[in-house]
Amino acid sequence: MGFYQRHILPCLLDCACSGKPFRKQREKIVPLAHGNVVEIGIGSGHNLPFYDQSKITKLTGIDPDEYIWKRSRKKRAQFHKPLERLGLSGEDIPLPDHYADTVVVTYSLCTIPDPVKALCEMRRILKPDGQLLFSEHGKAPDVNVQKWQARIDPLWSKISGGCFTGRDIPSFLAQSGFQTTDLQQAYIPGPKALAYNYWGSASPAH
Hints:
Blueprint: H1 3-16, H2 20-29, E1 35-40, E2 56-62, H3 66-69, H4 73-77, E3 83-86, E4 100-106, H5 115-125, E5 126-137, H6 143-159, H7 169-175, E6 178-187, H8 192-195, E7 196-204
Parallel strand pairs: 1-2, 1-4, 2-3, 4-5
Antiparallel strand pairs: 5-7, 6-7
């Protein structure tokens, strides 16, 4: 892995994900987390300031990137509940079945190589009455935007650390055994190919 991919690109993506439109999306879902929480793609801790710590028992972050995790030091200092990071991918979560009350995933399904497998893992570790809280960009409803997403994805994914612009988030949730309990969608500020967002909550289908 070259210097750009190892050091420059992660910082650029990290800064992009800290912008105001993303913060507003995080504010909508992260405070709803409670109990034993598992966050997929915790990265540099963008979600940490938005947790309602009075409702958290423990937070376990899943993320393979040790380098970007170090950027979360200041945010971690303000998080006063038990917190640990497991340096692995979301497709293979080393936690027991029915471990979590809440799983949080924000702007990570776009880059996970096998998002359906990762979502199946999230469902496995959730308690039967647990909830998945998500906010992701993905497939736009407009045909012209979809065409642009399809055109740029082969190149975009190579220069953006594996990010795909047009993933079908609702379809992935259904394929992995989730039932959406709240699904909202809209464009947020930004380039249209990257700006269509899905957010809300889902529960394991019974």
